[in-house]
Design brief:
The protein has 24 helices and 10 strands. The protein is α/β, with parallel strands linked by helices. The radius of gyration is 40 Å and the shape is rod-shaped. The modification 4-aspartylphosphate is found at residue 54.
């Protein structure tokens, strides 16, 4: 603790320097001053932690000196020495922040007791200040997370906490933004935890610089790649400025860190005290619309609601269920295809983090859809015969995802077996022979006429019968068989597209590519690249 003595009497200055073993008690002696004016210059230059100051001095007395120190915002401890035992002086000294008021000549034992007590107070205060500095980020984060979680508090409590944490926000209207870093190149996954933390600091700095002129705001990090921004905003007239700055922020992140970003912006809320939670949830919903808008955009929930004509909820971010593959497996009795679809469906439910109820609802939706496909193929069948109340009850009583998948598998294979049995009788047997012929000869130049001759029917009647049994045209069935085999060859061989086209019965590889894209939703090359 650095100490300075200020007194116009030389004997007091010298006596205190000689009679107290300052260094022994942990003090650093800075020297002395004869009056307040001289002392003020030395205080500004040397920054003592403790001054021992005489109450009465020429030019500027001790009380005036304390007042000048306070005006300059200089933090220090002070002990007043005075030859006057007057309450008024002591009261003024204490009001100016003095730690104690001692009469001259001071009793050395009493003097030492006072300065050691002041030193301990100073050390305790410094320790608390250091703890506050160390814990400040955590305290700020806890306060802000509490607001986002919907913690209720009074206006007085909110104001006190904001002032204590020195946050530049107020209780008025607000919008909350949720920024998500887009790692399009996958580079962040290659970084160490320390490097990712540095990236987080850099993003925070770029946000701060971009919004340097926005007076009332607070920013904090949520997870490794998300950042929350709370802006006090007076009304709709500031929205264009906010939109422009958010777009500029995306550009700044791209230019500086080579990282993309998508930002969801809440609608307008009136109070930061008790409406941070709904604003935060609204920002989350806005960000989820990235699924529809694409990345590297600023998504205002106001815009989404305007397009949809009202308040919106979170969109369902579901990957496609590839129902057509399920239906085709049932139609053609493809057991391997059905097993592959079941595995992909189970994986999708896990990766999407669906709740127990959602997994059961989605499973039941597939059961209903495939049952309708069965009825289209075989109109004599009834929905309640294929999908019974017992089947539905079992689905909703499944205790685990594995159990649910076993129940779904059993149901689907029951339908597949039923399809096989139906096709063994009557006109279905004719269609079954037709399908066997197509599956064996699809690579050749087969036509409706050649197929009809094989099963001893006229082309017109065969076409009618096939559509009635299979609920599709015979040409579509041939195309499906050819495309399924093309997909297999694309997965298992390195043959070129035109070679595969020839192998599955297409002489024109461009026509093959068009049919493939129509059936699969992508070109043969794109399909192979995604494998």
């Amino acid at each position: 603790m650095k100490v300075m003595v200020i007194d116009d009497e030389p004997i007091v200055r010298k006596g205190l320097q000689k009679l107290i073993a300052w260094e022994q008690y942990g003090f650093q002696w800075l020297g002395t001053a004869e009056n307040g004016e001289e002392a003020l210059e030395l205080i500004e230059a040397k920054r003592p932690d403790l001054i021992i100051v005489d109450c009465k001095m020429p030019h500027m007395d001790g009380l005036q000196l304390l007042g000048a120190v306070n005006e300059r915002g200089i933090a220090l401890k002070s002990v007043i020495l005075s030859g006057y035992d007057e309450f008024m002086y002591a009261q003024q000294a204490l009001q100016l922040g003095a730690s104690d008021y001692l009469l001259k000549p001071p009793d050395l034992e009493r003097f030492l007791e006072v300065i050691l007590r002041v030193k301990k107070e100073w050390e305790d205060e410094n320790r608390l200040k250091q703890q506050l500095r160390d814990n400040y980020p955590v305290m700020v984060e806890r306060f802000l997370l509490g607001l986002m979680a919907g913690g209720r508090q009074s206006p007085e409590s909110f104001r006190e906490k904001v002032e204590y944490l020195k946050l530049p926000i107020h209780s008025g209207p607000l919008r909350i933004c949720r920024l998500e870093i887009e790692d399009e190149t996958g580079q962040l996954d290659q970084y160490t935890i320390e490097d990712q933390q540095l990236i987080g600091f850099a993003v925070m700095n770029i946000i701060g610089e971009t919004f340097e002129e926005w007076p009332a705001k607070v920013i904090f990090q949520e997870g490794s790649r998300r950042f929350i921004m709370l802006f006090n905003i007076s009304g709709m007239e500031q929205v264009p400025q906010l939109r422009q700055l958010l777009l500029q922020l995306i550009d700044n992140l791209k230019a500086t860190l080579k990282l993309g970003a998508t930002i969801g912006v809440s609608r307008h809320f009136t109070s930061a005290i008790n409406e941070c939670k709904p604003a935060y949830e609204a920002a989350k919903i806005a960000l989820q619309y990235k699924y529809y808008t694409g990345a590297n955009k600023v998504i205002f929930l106001d815009d989404v609601e305007e397009e949809q004509g009202g308040v919106v909820a979170a969109p369902k971010e579901r990957e496609p269920l590839h129902e057509e593959e399920l239906f085709m497996s049932i139609r053609v009795c493809n057991e391997n295809g059905l097993e592959a679809w079941l595995a992909a469906f189970a994986l999708l439910l896990k990766e999407q983090g669906c709740s127990s109820h959602e997994t059961k609802t989605l499973s039941l939706q597939q059961m209903i859809a495939v049952t309708h496909t069965m009825i289209e193929m075989h109109p004599q069948l009834q929905l309640d015969e294929l999908l019974t109340a017992g089947d539905i009850e079992q689905i909703f009583t499944a205790g685990t995802l594995e159990e649910l998948m076993q129940l779904l598998r059993g149901f689907l294979f029951k339908l597949l077996t039923l399809t096989q049995n139906l096709r063994k009788s009557g006109k279905n047997a004719v269609i079954e022979r037709t399908k066997v012929f197509i599956q064996a000869q699809y690579a050749g130049n087969i036509t409706l006429e050649t197929i009809a001759a094989e099963v001893f029917l006229s082309p017109v009647y065969l076409s009618f019968l096939f559509k009635q049994v299979e609920a599709m045209n015979i040409t579509d069935y041939i195309a499906n068989i050819r495309i399924e085999n093309a997909k297999r060859l694309l997965k298992t061989t390195s043959s070129k597209t035109y070679e595969i086209a020839n192998l599955v019965g297409y002489q024109d590889d461009k026509y093959f590519s068009r049919i493939f894209k129509k059936k699969v939703g992508m070109t043969p090359s794109e399909y192979r690249n995604q494998i």
